[in-house]
Write a sequence for this structure.
C-alpha cells in the first residue's frame, strides 16, 4: 500500500506570510487614511471653532445676528371721534362699558348744555393697544359719525435710547457706591455723596420718562365727543339779490360805525385832558398875566408931544384947528 504524500511546509508558510503582508498593508493604509482624515478635519474643526469664537469676524457677526433679539415697535396711538347721538347719557354709559370690558378706563369728562338744553359731552378713554381698533369701531357705530382723526407716532428709537441710558446710569450709581465704601477721607465721602445724589436724580428722571413711554405705548388714547345737536345742512349757492346786497351794505355800515366808535373812544381821553389844560389857562393863568399899554406917547427931539385935548362928542382936536 502507498503512503500519502506529506504536506510541504514551504507553500503553507508562504501563504501565511502573504496573508500577513496584506493585513499589514491594509492596516497601514487605513491608518494613513484615518490620519489624513484626522489631519484634514482638524484644520476644518479649527476654522469652524475660530469662526464661532468671539474673536472670529464672520462667526461673531453671524452669531450676533442669530442671537440679536428683534425690536418690538413702540407706537403711541391717539384718535378723536365726534358722534351725533339721540341720547348723550345713554351713549356715554355704553362707551364706558365698552372701554371697561376692553380692559381700559375713563379719564377726563366734560359735559355742557346749549341754550336749547341739548347735551354735549367730551370724554377721554384709555384702552389697551391690542383692543384699540375694536373699541374704535364700537364707539363710532354708536350714532352718526361726524368727524374722525387717528394718529400713530413711532417712538421705538426713544424707548431704546431711554432703556440704554437707564442701564448705564444704574451701573454708574453702583460704581459711585463702591467708591464710597472704599473712601477713607471725609472730603472724599462728601464729594462722592454729592455725585451719588446727582446721578440718582438723573436715574429717577429717566425712570419716569420710561414709565411715561410705557403708559402711552401700552394704552391708546381716544377722545370721544357726543352731541345731540343736528348737523346743519349747507345752503345751496344762489346768486345774490337786492335783499342780500342791502344786508351786506347794512353790515358794512354797522362795521364802520363800530370802528368810528372805537376811534372816538381811543381819542376821547386825550381830548378831555387837552380841554382841561385850555380851560385852566383861560381861567387861572391868563388873568394874572400883566397887560400891555394901549398906545405909547409920541416923542420928539425936544421932548414928548402934548396929547391932543379931547373933542366933545368923543373925538380929538386936530392940530391948528379951533372951534
Amino acid at each position: 500500500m502507498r503512503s500519502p504524500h506529506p504536506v510541504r511546509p514551504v507553500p503553507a508558510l508562504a501563504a501565511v506570510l502573504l496573508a500577513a503582508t496584506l493585513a499589514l498593508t491594509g492596516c497601514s493604509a487605513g491608518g494613513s487614511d484615518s490620519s489624513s482624515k484626522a489631519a484634514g478635519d482638524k484644520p476644518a474643526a479649527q476654522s469652524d471653532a475660530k469662526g464661532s469664537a468671539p474673536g472670529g469676524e464672520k462667526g461673531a457677526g453671524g452669531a450676533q445676528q442669530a442671537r440679536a433679539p428683534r425690536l418690538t415697535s413702540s407706537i403711541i396711538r391717539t384718535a378723536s371721534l365726534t358722534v351725533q347721538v339721540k341720547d348723550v347719557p345713554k351713549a356715554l354709559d355704553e362707551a364706558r362699558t365698552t372701554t371697561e370690558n376692553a380692559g381700559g378706563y375713563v379719564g377726563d369728562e366734560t359735559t355742557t348744555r346749549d341754550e336749547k338744553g341739548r347735551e354735549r359731552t367730551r370724554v377721554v378713554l384709555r384702552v389697551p393697544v391690542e383692543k384699540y381698533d375694536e373699541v374704535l369701531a364700537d364707539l363710532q357705530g354708536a350714532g352718526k359719525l361726524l368727524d374722525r382723526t387717528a394718529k400713530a407716532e413711532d417712538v421705538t428709537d426713544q424707548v431704546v435710547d431711554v432703556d440704554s441710558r437707564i442701564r448705564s446710569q444704574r451701573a454708574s450709581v453702583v460704581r459711585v457706591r463702591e467708591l464710597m465704601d472704599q473712601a477713607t477721607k471725609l472730603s472724599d465721602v462728601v464729594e462722592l455723596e454729592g455725585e451719588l445724589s446727582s446721578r440718582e436724580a438723573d436715574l429717577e428722571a429717566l425712570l419716569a420718562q420710561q414709565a411715561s413711554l410705557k403708559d402711552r405705548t401700552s394704552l391708546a388714547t381716544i377722545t370721544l365727543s357726543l352731541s345731540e345737536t343736528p348737523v346743519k345742512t349747507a345752503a345751496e349757492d344762489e346768486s345774490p339779490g337786492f335783499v342780500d346786497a342791502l344786508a351786506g351794505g347794512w353790515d358794512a355800515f354797522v362795521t364802520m360805525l363800530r370802528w368810528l366808535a372805537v376811534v372816538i373812544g381811543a381819542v376821547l381821553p386825550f381830548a378831555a385832558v387837552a380841554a382841561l389844560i385850555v380851560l385852566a389857562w383861560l381861567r387861572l393863568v391868563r388873568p394874572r398875566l400883566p397887560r400891555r399899554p394901549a398906545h405909547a406917547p409920541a416923542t420928539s427931539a425936544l421932548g414928548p408931544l402934548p396929547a391932543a385935548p379931547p373933542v366933545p362928542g368923543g373925538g380929538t382936536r386936530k392940530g391948528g384947528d379951533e372951534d
User: Anything to note?
Assistant: The longest strand covers residues 144-154.
